[in-house]
Amino acid sequence: MKKTLFGLIYMSSYKIQLNIVDLKDLTVIEQLDSPSFLQADSKSQVFEQDMDKICDAIEGFKEKLAEYQIKDFKFYGNEQLIDEMSASFIADQIKVRTGWKIEWLNGGQIVYAKVLSGMKSQAEVNDDGKDHATYLLSLGSAMINLSLFKNNKFESSWSLALGPREIQEINEITNETPNDPIYVINDYLGAKIGHLARQIKDNSRAAVIIQHADALNNTYLKKENSANQITHEEFQYFYDQLIQMSLNDIMQNYDLEPAVAEHVIPNAISIKQFLSLLNIGTIYITDMSVVTGLLMLEKRGKDTDIMMTSAQNMARRYLVDLHHANAVRKFALHIFDRLRKVHLLPKSARELLGWAATVDDIGSFVNQARRYEQSADFIEANELIGMSDRENEIVSEICRYQTIDDGDGSAPNIGGHHYRHLNPDVQLTVAKLSAILRIATALDASHKQKIKKIVISLKKNNELVIRAKTNADITLERWSFNKRVKLFEDVFGIKVVLKQEGMNRQ
């Protein structure tokens, strides 16, 4: 078999699926699905009641991979609907019973995969050569995501919590009242979407690509295409027919299983609400999915530009001074690069440092006095697009440890109670990157970018000299540097000196 063949297993809240794919052009050679999972009423029940289905499917997948002589495969699972304890238990059960290790994807990673698939969908439908704004509306088991692309580049993303439990609660409400459930769901979604109306401008020239709308795809998507255009009139006809149907009618008419069918009406209402909110001109549908994005990730690796854009969007949302953040990031990355033989961290740590430098001041939006700790809390609660739980934890903790102890003992410190409770595999990385970022932040303490360039040299006497190239008064930067340098000296065992040199000196 060709070496480009690859196996991707993805477990959603609905089923577990194997895709045999040619990575050369991302062609799906064969696809196998498990029977649909039972839809759980609580996080503790998701996947657990379907362990036999999951393990039986995996054994079948093993046979199929062997048939194609494929040894290169990945096994991912959607973690959005389960808690950390359940994820650990389920992963252990799968490992014990099948020998396979699952890699859980958090909400930020799922959104990232959707964005990647949206970019591929956009490339397929953008055949007029024009760079109009394009939205990707992705309907998921736990979230509805809306992403914006301009000039064929990712711009922003918003998420709306809507999953099986919310749908079940709405159904229970409508069962107890004489109200039409369509109106109740409409009101619920309208309230959820309302906050986006203040952030999104309507654009009649914009297009929307609708993703994961199975009933709509089964009605209008041509078998030979992965994406195609539908008219507003076609969608309205589909909608008018759909809302009159029972669950059994939906299953039969659109060839859907119960777990998928129960989401069709809420999803259709969501689409209608978003079309109205965005004042969309052109509608496309696609069968490209999270799996498509994961395959693109496997083929090309991470698109760090998307992840940095996401971090910058978060910074803008909380009114961070981006000129300051960019200066700090530039200094931090330069220090990281010049001290590779000292910190001994992998290249991936450099990216984490850059993201932390971008978002470390978002907490000022709420609490200036304890802004870095507030920043850490924000990042813990709002996963950055594309980051694993471990990466997100490192970035949040780097932010937390930018706090300087002013003598009252209240600031978190490296080696203190909170730090000792971090996962051991992240402690050293957090300490080293926090130390680098502290002195980089000091180099723009005035937020005026007085220092345009730094030159770093490590002397034989184990002294690090940072030469600041500037003709400006950097008294404030010196004062801040002296306060923030101790962590660096403690972590690396190196004495650090800041010297100023005029811009006319080489």
From TrEMBL:
<protein>
    <submittedName>
        <fullName>HD domain-containing protein</fullName>
    </submittedName>
</protein>
<feature type="domain" description="Ppx/GppA phosphatase C-terminal">
    <location>
        <begin position="308"/>
        <end position="478"/>
    </location>
</feature>
<dbReference type="InterPro" id="IPR048950">
    <property type="entry name" value="Ppx_GppA_C"/>
</dbReference>
<dbReference type="InterPro" id="IPR050273">
    <property type="entry name" value="GppA/Ppx_hydrolase"/>
</dbReference>
<comment type="similarity">
    <text>Belongs to the GppA/Ppx family.</text>
</comment>
<dbReference type="Pfam" id="PF21447">
    <property type="entry name" value="Ppx-GppA_III"/>
</dbReference>
